[in-house]
């Protein structure tokens, strides 16, 4: 596995691989790998001839006062884990390589970037869309891999890729969870033992929603209220939002139908956690 820091070199490598008729896959990450990241790499390695994992803690997707400085990092360990999965290249640019002093451009996906997490993290998804657009240019892979854990991000990236005509196929993997159901996240490392125990309420609220839907409930208000009740039982959870919406335009639903995204975001101590389920209904 080779570590590449230069975007020119990275692009040359991928163009060269493609000229040889090989299929390239890109897995964008911010590092501090857990099993969710490793599943993405596994899928990419099984479907592509050459796999590039980008590892860049993107400053433009963190708002003022967020955890950019504290974001967990362990580059050596990440490289070992990626290599074990069969990854061919780690693209790990310095900040100035991605954003030189005279950088002026933003890629903004309107409307769907401003709801849900976007309402609480202004500018976050513009930071995400901008860096992913850059990555699609620097690593011109035919396939890119993202996790369903970041459901809104996935919707936004699909839209951005379509609207901007990026010739890349967007692939997704299901949420990888701890044994008790907590969605794996680099930010789980912020949780103390009490918070870790209580954080499971996010998943439990989604399980409750699933049970209600299975029993025939279609009223979003009823489902949301039941979910709120589950998280309200925990004193260390500070709920940000629960949204029940369609999975393309992220428009809130009153009655559940079609492909429905049920998403939750909450602070557990100082960790901001997100989780979701997607259900397909008639
Ligand atoms: P991050 O390093 O947090 O930016 O995540 C990099 C990629 O891994 C994104 O596409 C995430 O959606 C995905 N990812 C993170 N956590 C999980 C998880 N628990 N299950 C599946 N994918 C995940």
Label this structure with key terms.
9 strands; 282 residues; six-stranded parallel beta sheet; alpha/beta; 21% strand; globular; three-stranded antiparallel beta sheet; binds adenosine monophosphate
Strand content: 15-25%
Distance between the termini: 46 Å
Cα shape: globular
What is the helix content? 25-40%
Total strand segments: 9
Strand order of the largest sheet: 1-4-3-2-5-6
Order of helices and strands: EHEHEHEHHHEHEHHHEEE
**Class by alpha and beta content:** alpha/beta
What integer is the average pLDDT? 97
Ligands and ions found: adenosine monophosphate
**Poorly predicted tracts of residues:** none
Q: What's the tally of helices?
A: 10
Radius of gyration: 19 Å
Secondary structure elements and pairings:
Layout: E1 2-4, H1 7-19, E2 24-29, H2 35-47, E3 50-55, H3 75-85, E4 89-91, H4 95-98, H5 117-120, H6 124-138, E5 143-147, H7 151-163, E6 169-173, H8 193-198, H9 200-214, H10 220-232, E7 237-246, E8 259-268, E9 271-280
Parallel strand pairs: 1-4, 2-3, 2-5, 3-4, 5-6
Antiparallel strand pairs: 7-8, 8-9
Helix pairs in contact: 6-7, 9-10
The chain binds adenosine monophosphate.
Adenosine monophosphate binds at residues 29-30, 36-37, 40, 146-147, 149-150, 173, 175-176, 183-186.
């Amino acid at each position: 596995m080779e570590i590449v820091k230069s975007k020119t070199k990275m692009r040359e490598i991928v163009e060269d691989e493609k000229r040889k008729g090989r299929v390239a896959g890109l897995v964008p990450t911010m590092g501090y790998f857990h099993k969710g990241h490793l599943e993405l790499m596994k899928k990419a390695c099984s479907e592509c001839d050459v796999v590039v994992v980008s590892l860049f803690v993107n400053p433009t997707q963190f708002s003022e006062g967020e955890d950019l400085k504290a974001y967990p990092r362990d580059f050596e360990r990440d490289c070992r884990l990626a290599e074990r999965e069969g990854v061919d290249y780690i693209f790990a640019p310095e900040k100035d390589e991605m954003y030189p002093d005279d950088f002026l451009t933003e890629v903004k996906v309107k409307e769907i970037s401003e709801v849900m997490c976007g309402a609480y993290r202004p500018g976050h998804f513009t930071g995400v869309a901008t860096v992913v657009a850059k990555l699609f240019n620097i690593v011109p892979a035919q396939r890119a891999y993202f996790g369903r854990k970041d459901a809104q991000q996935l919707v936004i990236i699909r839209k951005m890729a379509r609207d901007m005509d990026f010739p890349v196929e967007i692939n997704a993997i299901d949420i990888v969870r701890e044994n008790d159901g907590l969605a794996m996240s680099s930010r789980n490392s912020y949780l103390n033992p009490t918070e870790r125990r209580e954080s499971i309420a996010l998943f439990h609220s989604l399980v409750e929603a699933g049970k209600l839907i299975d029993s025939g409930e279609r009223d979003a208000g009823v489902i949301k209220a039941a979910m709120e009740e589950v998280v309200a039982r925990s004193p260390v959870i500070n709920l940000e939002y629960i949204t029940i919406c369609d999975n393309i335009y992220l428009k809130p639903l009153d009655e559940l139908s079609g492909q429905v995204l049920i998403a939750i975001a909450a602070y557990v101590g100082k960790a901001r956690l997100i989780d979701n389920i997607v259900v397909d209904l008639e």
